[in-house]
Specification:
Blueprint lengths: L1 E6 L2 E6 L6 H7 L18 E4 L2 E4 L12 E3 L5 H13 L9 H14 L5 H7 L11 H14 L1
Parallel strand pairs: 1-5
Antiparallel strand pairs: 1-2, 3-4, 3-5
Protein backbone atom coordinates (compact mmCIF):
# COMPACT_ATOMS: atom_id res chain seq x y z
CA UNK A 1 0.00 0.00 0.00
CA UNK A 2 1.13 3.56 -0.61
CA UNK A 3 1.19 5.99 2.28
CA UNK A 4 1.97 9.69 2.38
CA UNK A 5 3.65 11.28 5.35
CA UNK A 6 6.08 14.03 6.17
CA UNK A 7 9.59 13.09 7.22
CA UNK A 8 11.85 15.85 8.48
CA UNK A 9 9.67 18.49 6.87
CA UNK A 10 9.56 16.82 3.46
CA UNK A 11 6.53 15.11 1.92
CA UNK A 12 7.30 11.44 1.33
CA UNK A 13 5.36 8.64 -0.36
CA UNK A 14 6.23 5.11 0.69
CA UNK A 15 5.17 1.69 -0.47
CA UNK A 16 4.69 -0.39 2.67
CA UNK A 17 3.46 -3.85 3.46
CA UNK A 18 0.43 -4.00 5.80
CA UNK A 19 2.49 -5.57 8.62
CA UNK A 20 5.66 -3.50 8.06
CA UNK A 21 6.86 -1.50 11.03
CA UNK A 22 7.85 2.15 10.78
CA UNK A 23 11.48 1.41 11.73
CA UNK A 24 11.85 -0.80 8.64
CA UNK A 25 10.12 1.63 6.28
CA UNK A 26 12.29 4.53 7.46
CA UNK A 27 15.56 2.57 7.25
CA UNK A 28 14.65 1.26 3.80
CA UNK A 29 14.08 4.88 2.73
CA UNK A 30 17.53 5.96 3.93
CA UNK A 31 16.89 7.26 7.45
CA UNK A 32 19.62 5.13 8.95
CA UNK A 33 19.75 6.95 12.29
CA UNK A 34 16.62 4.98 13.16
CA UNK A 35 18.17 1.82 14.58
CA UNK A 36 16.76 -1.63 15.16
CA UNK A 37 17.31 -2.79 18.73
CA UNK A 38 15.06 -5.01 20.78
CA UNK A 39 11.98 -5.20 18.48
CA UNK A 40 9.79 -5.03 21.59
CA UNK A 41 9.61 -1.26 22.26
CA UNK A 42 11.78 -1.53 25.38
CA UNK A 43 15.18 -0.10 24.46
CA UNK A 44 14.36 3.23 22.77
CA UNK A 45 16.99 2.79 20.06
CA UNK A 46 14.36 3.12 17.31
CA UNK A 47 12.76 6.27 18.77
CA UNK A 48 11.46 8.90 16.35
CA UNK A 49 9.17 11.84 16.91
CA UNK A 50 5.64 11.29 15.62
CA UNK A 51 3.91 14.67 15.55
CA UNK A 52 6.52 15.86 18.05
CA UNK A 53 6.09 13.03 20.54
CA UNK A 54 8.64 10.23 21.01
CA UNK A 55 7.51 6.78 19.86
CA UNK A 56 9.34 3.50 19.44
CA UNK A 57 9.11 2.95 15.70
CA UNK A 58 9.52 -0.82 16.05
CA UNK A 59 6.05 -0.86 17.60
CA UNK A 60 4.32 1.50 15.14
CA UNK A 61 2.92 -0.01 11.94
CA UNK A 62 4.19 2.10 9.05
CA UNK A 63 0.65 2.49 7.72
CA UNK A 64 -0.34 4.20 10.98
CA UNK A 65 2.14 7.00 10.21
CA UNK A 66 0.21 8.02 7.09
CA UNK A 67 -0.66 11.69 7.22
CA UNK A 68 1.64 12.37 10.17
CA UNK A 69 4.92 14.21 10.72
CA UNK A 70 7.97 12.09 11.53
CA UNK A 71 11.21 13.63 12.79
CA UNK A 72 14.53 11.80 12.86
CA UNK A 73 17.89 13.22 13.89
CA UNK A 74 18.66 13.83 10.20
CA UNK A 75 15.94 16.48 10.24
CA UNK A 76 17.27 18.55 13.14
CA UNK A 77 21.06 18.53 12.73
CA UNK A 78 21.80 21.81 14.53
CA UNK A 79 19.99 20.88 17.74
CA UNK A 80 21.39 17.33 17.58
CA UNK A 81 24.91 18.71 17.27
CA UNK A 82 24.34 21.11 20.17
CA UNK A 83 23.05 18.41 22.53
CA UNK A 84 25.68 15.99 21.25
CA UNK A 85 28.47 18.36 22.24
CA UNK A 86 27.23 18.35 25.83
CA UNK A 87 26.98 14.55 25.86
CA UNK A 88 30.48 14.14 24.41
CA UNK A 89 31.94 16.58 26.94
CA UNK A 90 30.58 14.36 29.71
CA UNK A 91 31.81 11.06 28.22
CA UNK A 92 28.34 9.85 27.26
CA UNK A 93 29.13 9.20 23.59
CA UNK A 94 30.76 5.79 23.84
CA UNK A 95 29.48 3.60 20.97
CA UNK A 96 26.69 5.98 19.92
CA UNK A 97 24.18 3.26 19.03
CA UNK A 98 21.54 4.61 21.44
CA UNK A 99 22.31 8.29 20.77
CA UNK A 100 19.70 9.10 18.09
CA UNK A 101 16.82 7.77 20.20
CA UNK A 102 18.18 9.42 23.33
CA UNK A 103 18.62 12.79 21.61
CA UNK A 104 15.11 12.76 20.14
CA UNK A 105 13.64 11.86 23.52
CA UNK A 106 15.55 14.68 25.24
CA UNK A 107 14.36 17.17 22.63
CA UNK A 108 10.76 16.01 23.07
CA UNK A 109 11.18 16.36 26.82
CA UNK A 110 12.36 19.96 26.46
CA UNK A 111 9.20 20.75 24.50
CA UNK A 112 6.99 19.11 27.12
CA UNK A 113 8.59 19.93 30.48
CA UNK A 114 9.70 23.31 31.83
CA UNK A 115 12.88 23.06 33.91
CA UNK A 116 12.86 19.31 34.62
CA UNK A 117 14.90 18.21 37.61
CA UNK A 118 17.11 15.09 37.58
CA UNK A 119 14.25 12.86 38.72
CA UNK A 120 11.99 14.10 35.90
CA UNK A 121 14.79 13.57 33.35
CA UNK A 122 15.39 10.02 34.61
CA UNK A 123 11.67 9.27 34.47
CA UNK A 124 11.29 10.70 30.95
CA UNK A 125 14.30 8.76 29.68
CA UNK A 126 13.46 5.45 31.40
CA UNK A 127 12.79 3.76 28.03
CA UNK A 128 16.20 4.65 26.54
CA UNK A 129 18.70 1.94 27.35
CA UNK A 130 22.46 2.28 26.94
CA UNK A 131 24.92 -0.57 27.32
CA UNK A 132 28.01 1.64 27.47
CA UNK A 133 27.59 4.80 29.46
CA UNK A 134 26.18 3.93 32.87
CA UNK A 135 23.85 6.95 32.49
CA UNK A 136 25.77 9.30 34.83
CA UNK A 137 27.52 11.03 31.90
CA UNK A 138 24.26 11.23 29.99
CA UNK A 139 22.51 12.86 32.93
CA UNK A 140 25.37 15.36 33.41
CA UNK A 141 25.37 16.23 29.71
CA UNK A 142 21.59 16.61 29.59
CA UNK A 143 21.61 18.76 32.73
CA UNK A 144 24.25 21.08 31.21
CA UNK A 145 22.37 21.20 27.92
CA UNK A 146 19.17 22.19 29.76
CA UNK A 147 21.05 24.87 31.71
CA UNK A 148 22.50 26.30 28.49
CA UNK A 149 19.03 26.48 26.94
CA UNK A 150 17.74 28.69 29.77
Amino acid sequence: MRIELTVNGRAVQLEVEPQEMLVDALRRTGFVSVKRGCDSALCGVCTVLLDGRPVTSCAVPAARAAGHEITTVEGIPDEVRRLGEFLVAEGADQCGFCSPGLVLTVLAMTAELDHPDDEAVRHYLAGNLCRCSGYAGQLRGIRKYLEARR
